[in-house]
Amino acid sequence: MIILTSSLIFFTLVFVFLIYACVLADPDSSNLGRFCTKELPSFLYQQLEKTVGKKGLLRLQRLMDHAFQLVYLTVVLGSWSIMFCYGYEEIEKSNYIHTYHQYSGYVVFVLCMSSFHCACNTPPGSVTEKTLTLFDHYEYDDVLYKNQTCPTLKIRKIARSKYDRFTRRHVPRFDHFCGWINQAVGEQNYRWFLLFLTVHVFMCIYGSWAVFRVLYGEVVEKDLLNATFFNAITGAEVQADSWIVFHYLFLRHMQLCSIFILMSVMAVVLCIFLSFHLYITSKNMTTNEFFKWKSVRRWHKEEKQKYEQSLKYREVPGKETNSESNNPTIFSGELSDFDIGCTGPKGASLQHSSSPFRPFSAISDPGQLPLNIYE
Angle of helix 254-282 relative to helix 67-82, nearest 10 degrees? Predict the structure, then answer.
């Protein structure tokens, strides 16, 4: 039991460390985040290039483009294999879950794989000279989107679109790039992405419930909470409690307990992620726009504080004499662009050291916070 407890604590700490260092930590302000997401990958890249050469590295990069998909397939197919080999046998023997769940499980598995296939293979749309009129149905807000030319493809940038450097296309109503499906999410495949998320939330919740019923049935039928256990090392009798029963179940049904923990955690994570996307969908926003508006609000707050501080020390004219104060909003530059992934902006591209607008003029009243015309 001590070994099992230590292993669980160790893997939990490693998991928390990786999530913080690779996902949550900002590489521009965190030394740990910068080391794990920039310095270490750069060092490994250089060493790989020396070892396998440029051609070998290009082949490896093409493989790594599908790395998250391979991880997804390994985890999902591995978990379903455990359910088919071990879980279905326990469902057959259990009195606490009906055997028809064996058949409904196959339906969920087909839905899971089908939604993954559709999300991976449905393109988000591509803005070209020929398709401009097809996707050009939003007006420019002159905040996030302005009537200008895409510097990469040399075509007019329609409102709410963005060039995605991973798929090398200009995506209409760009949301984000998802590594799990190795696809940009945009106007023509966002519905399939939402279906993919919804199916997997249901799969994790349903799978967690089914495994819980199997394990709960064994606890009740064997009256494990009132049982007496023996320490295999000392031979001493140990009265059962919740932790000891968990140890017993984990050792007896290690495969089922492992996927129960995995599905329970993923159910919570995916529920939060799906809730976020349902929220921004209800606001007619994209992930790209959500984080850019967050940058705009931060810029507006900082500029307002600077202006009020300057007024306090009389470094700029008062509001009554400032000719620009009648304008609803005065921007001091152009919003910088950055890559958008599943968890938001990539730290390498988002400039935290300054405002998201490149300054063109002296301190002035930024006016009112601009409105999102698409909401």
Answer: 130
> Reduced to 3 DSSP states, what percent helix, strand and coil does the chain have, rounded to the nearest 5?
55, 5, 35
**Distance from the Cα of residue 330 to its chain's centroid:** 34
Say which residue the tokens 């326990």 belong to: 90
Q: Which residues is 164 bridged to in the sheet?
A: 169
Contact 176, 342 (CB under 8 A): yes
Helix and strand element counts for the chain (H, E): 11, 8
Extract the tokens encoding 98. Answer: 């009906």
Cα separation, 291 vs 295, in Å, equals 6
Residue 1 is predicted with a pLDDT of 55
- At residue 65 the predicted structure's pLDDT band, cuts being 50, 70 and 90, is confident
**CA distances for 263 relative to 79, 205, 212, 258, 319, angstroms:** 9, 7, 11, 9, 57
Would you mind telling me the total number of residues written for the chain in this entry?
375
* pLDDT bracket for residue 281 (50, 70, 90): very high
- 294 has a pLDDT exceeding 60: yes
Distance of CA 163 to the CA centre of its chain: 20
Q: How far apart are CA 120 and CA 108, in angstroms?
A: 18
In the predicted model, what is the mean pLDDT of residues 123-149? 92
* Residue 342 token pair: 């599943």
